[in-house]
Fold each of these.
Amino acid sequence: MCGIIGIIGNERINEELYIGLNIIQHRGQDSCGMCTYDGKFHLQKYEGLVQNAFTPANIKMLKGNIGIGHVRYPTAGSGGVEDAQPFFVNYPYGIAMAHNGNIANYRELSKINKNEYHRIINSSCDIEVFLNIFAHNLEGKTFSLETMKNALLNTTKIIIGSYSIVSIIGDYGLLAYRDPYGFRPLIFGRKGNSYIFASESCAIDTLGYKIVRDVKPGEMIFIDNKGEFYSEVISKAEYRPCIFEYIYFARPDSIMNNILVARARYNLGKTLAEKIKRLGIIPDVVVPVPDTARNAALAVAKKLHVSYQEGLIKNRYIGRTFIMPGQDIRVSSIRQKLHPVKEQLKGKKVLLIDDSIVRGNTSKELVNLIKQSGATEVYFASYSPPVKYPCYYGIDMQTESELIANKMEIEEIRTFINADALIYQDYDDMIKAVKTDSNVKFDRFCTACFSGDYPQTIPPHILNDIVNDRTRK
């Protein structure tokens, strides 16, 4: 999972890219990068956070009226600056590209690039594979919309996985493309003659652009250097946007696929509260795990007629623990990241609301933290169902061995995390809650991590590659 931005049309591209990447920093903290074009490509990539990596001096060097940017946490590759995006090839035309997603058959395609296309992949980042296949399909051809369309189609045919892409095509313009399932979000907006594409609408709003709409699944959008807008859906499959975006990843003020994230999470809290009622659990106080669980916890407290308290205070200088590389770092960061307000917890039956339980160790640390603060009982509620199956489309949970619900029953998980009660959202309630109040244009989400229903078939040898890569991390 990552965050991307592409902008074309004005002379403040570098500043807008910098601001926009800061807005979507929550989507990746491992590395960041920007590329602009003014007849030459200007590319800068760094490890770490955007605000720490880019200085006014090096932002000023990113010249041009077209640019793309990226924040990354690694789902493929080892991370670090060598895997930071965007990536660039100088032939044909000069192409720079960044993406949000995960290409599952990355290793297989790397071999094709080397053995058949004679293109060396110089990183372990999956978008470099896509970029080189796309460039290979453009080799020796005069640039046109039809040429670009055919190159994208031929690339898409051999890709397994998810990808929302922004790309600079040399002297020609800015390309945006979303995979035919629409797994990962991509929205675009307009301000005068300028266009912006971003993973989340909050970046578009902040920069003063008017949101136009989501990029459609399989849609190619191209804005040329004269400001002409072209779009066409070139590849079709069942629209299956990722539901985990609404559970955890996206900012609550973002709208994706016509769904406001904050409203989805509030609705998830309402349905979760009904289940808690049925179970006869009566807490003294409802406490969210900040930040994602606030909307859901507010709804739970309101439905249960129980006090809502910010019983955990977040240190905003510690990053999102779910996307930190390695379980030891995740666990050690919890107590640095969250500090209990003991006066609000001592002597209370605390209902702790979180977005999900993935590996279980973080949940265990949270329960122990609350109990050590004097709570008499701690009930743990997840506003999503048990995460039982790996994700191959961009969320960093790619092997069954990582997932506690794949190995344990609910009562075993309750015991492991040391909770006095454990409540999961029901699957059907999750679907209903996220869709409620929304004008959605699709029938089903991708819920593979909860249901095991994968929109794409992943061949066994690809699954083995993923497990081996993950084990080596």
Amino acid sequence: MLTLFHISDLHFGPPYYPEIGEKVRAFAHELEPDIIVASGDFTQRAREEQFRAARNYLDRLPQVPIVVTPGNHDVPLHDVWRRMTDPFGRYREYINPDLDTVTRLPGLVVVALNSTAPRRAIVNGRISRRQLAYARRAFEETPEGDLRVIVSHHHFAPPPDFEGADVMPKAKRALDALTSMNVDLILGGHLHRGYIGNSLDVYSGANREYGIVIAQSGTTTSRRGRAREREKNSFNVIRMDDHVIRVTHYMHFEDADGFLPTSRHIFFRGGRLRHQAEAAAAVSDHNRGYHVNVRLQA
């Protein structure tokens, strides 16, 4: 069983909430994850002091592999010259010198794709054919049965209750390509509102026998939550094995002075029906007080 801690949209700068940030850090150390994913928007305005603060924060998280990807707020907005000539300079210096990455653990490969397009679209993202080819090469070198995860900042699917959340251009093309690569899970942020579901919920796809689990995190440490997470903070804890992907969505509640699980979603990898009874029994003692969504991935 692998445990993945998924945070997003930290927004260091004026929107960053230091008290929440320390609670998230404490939660991460208590969780002891195998890997951490931070899916973009480390800063509010891509300023050097904001990147320094974000780097310091990442360095104080558990010392496990951390997968990162840029967000649209990590490229300059008002400094047009820098955005045109060196949009990722500070991100490369403080967060990661590479924009597309492959991270491998035993039984798991995570491919992070930079979905920002600072010269074409300030807010909306893009995933290019070149990046899809990069992901395909990475997965071709992945043993059969290993978990395959994609990370991007921008969303491939809108949450069903949030208006105005247009997906990336060519998102359907990307989903079809990722489906052909047998990707198990897509992680992202950007919306400041969590969403956990399946690609088949929003797009039937070229292959209607296989869907990809999609887990969006809300904003983990800023005051910029939206929709039902307005002024809320959230993250995901994902536990994965050969048969099942379990996504638990956590939100912060002031009355509880901490983060509490608000929903749990169980997906069976590859339609392995014979494992449903075992997985259902495993969660039967934990399904009171919050929503449990059990469904097939394929």
Amino acid sequence: MAGLRLTFLGTGTSMGVPTLGCDCRVCRSPDPRDHRLRPSVLLEYNGHAVVIDTSPDFRQQALRAGLKRVDAVLYTHSHADHILGLDDLRPFNLKQGDIPLYANRATQEMLRRAFPYVFGQATRHSSVPNVDLQEINGPFELFGRRILPLPVAHGEMEVLGFRVGRAAYLTDFSAIPDAVKKELRGLDLLVLDALRDRPHPNHSTVENSVALVRELAPRRAYFTHIAHDLAHEETNRRLPAGVELAYDGLAAEVED
């Protein structure tokens, strides 16, 4: 089976970097790797394109990535920075028809509330996203690959990470259950939330995520969901070998 390509569409927090109204050194940084859109990734395999989360910046992200189609969307959870770009699926609908959206029940309920014009029965006077909600309640196959949902804690909320082959993506988490850790050992690529150095009740810190990398021993790891507290180059200099901050537009090939 051919390998998988993971592209970081956005590596920032819910406010993005630069953050509105902020004049800190990272928000003023000329390094393009310090410019972070809201969190999302693209998975390409077997000739298909699968997006994890449609951030509010999805249109800009898709243009930058040269995205020509979206075959499916996987949702980690229902927070605004992960769902509000759903409407930008419309141009892909015009070319390819319905797009399946995979989400757990709680996220499906929020999608219906946030986008009543998409999921309601009211008369439509304009184009709307044509999507097909599919509930995630365990592992499933998508375009010839097994998708393994990974329930983790985001403060008091349960959210999903995903493992596809030898790659896993976990954004927005504060703790990973032991049962999930068993599915994350010895991967080729592990992507983890690492918001900042200071503790946060809903997110992992750099220190915590470095400790997870040491415990789970992937071949390489990237950190995402990065706040404006962390400068890219400066932070990378203090990370252990095989661990880096991701940046918008970074692509990684994952071999089976």
Amino acid sequence: MSGGGTGGHIFPAIAIANKLKERYTHADILFVGAKGRMEMEKVPRAGYPIQGLWISGFQRKLTIDNLSFPFKLVSSLCKARKIVNNFKPDVAIGTGGYASGPLLYMASRKKVPTLILEQNSFPGITNKILGKRVDTVCVAYNGMEKYFPHNKLKVTGAPIRKEILTLSTTREEGLKHFGLNKKEPVLLIIGGSQGARGINTAIEQNLDAIAALGIQIIWQTGTSSFKDAENAAGKSRFKANIRVTEFIYEMDKAYAAANLIVSRAGAIAIAEIVAVGKPAIFIPLPSAAEDHQTKNARSLSEKGAGILLPEKEAKTKIITEIKALAESAEKRGQIIKNLAAFKTDDATQNIVNEVDKLINKNR
């Protein structure tokens, strides 16, 4: 397994690994990540071994990292070849991120059955390159033939963690975990695994006004914005109702506690919100490739299944949108009802079925 850099690559990979372990109880699963990236901590925490490659992305401008990129690439290809030779996998799976390029490339050269997952409506450069070499390309959206060979495509959906897909955590358990009360509604703010500066800035500037609505707040900031957010919460007269955290591991508890959500609009974030059926305000990352997060969010907002708020308007309009959603049970109920149309089969199961086909085909 290889997927990393962001939670949108890591957590689908872990979800697939967990489902594979259910089907193949004695399977040996090895992850391959990029040294220094978040997968090197998140994957072992999920219970899987991981090896790191010395690899990073190629920037569009001249940087020191770009000068070292050829050396990193050669080093990573050599180590990936060694890993494949030693581990002798029956199948190799990539979910995006720097490390998946060298690993899947070497696995395909060694005639190992290969599968990649592209959960966004616009593929990353690694998956674009790998799509020509691998056996199967699993996608979450229709119309991906413009990026990948049509005969390799399988529309499976975007895999999410089992505890979120089948959310059984009660609201009381969620509230207790975060030390919140039952009387007031809870706003969950999530900017992705690394946080979202645009969302964090908008929340920080409106923090007291949001809390003054009688709303409790769970605010996941990412590392870079954590100190500023923590300071802002500490100075707030409503600080007793605000929980600031760099990262939330128990997302099932956060979703269970939440009455409404502010979120980025990556494929996995949307898939999770659809699965748990919570009303959300989506603030897409404006720099996302081909503006795919806006397209993701618009697919819901046009059907009344969410609210789309451009980041450039967030500072001035976020309080209005939160207030309108918090104060209207009818509006929240309508969004929840409309979200039901977006629910799909278990995407993780669909992907594991494709892995099965690859393994059995080569036996």
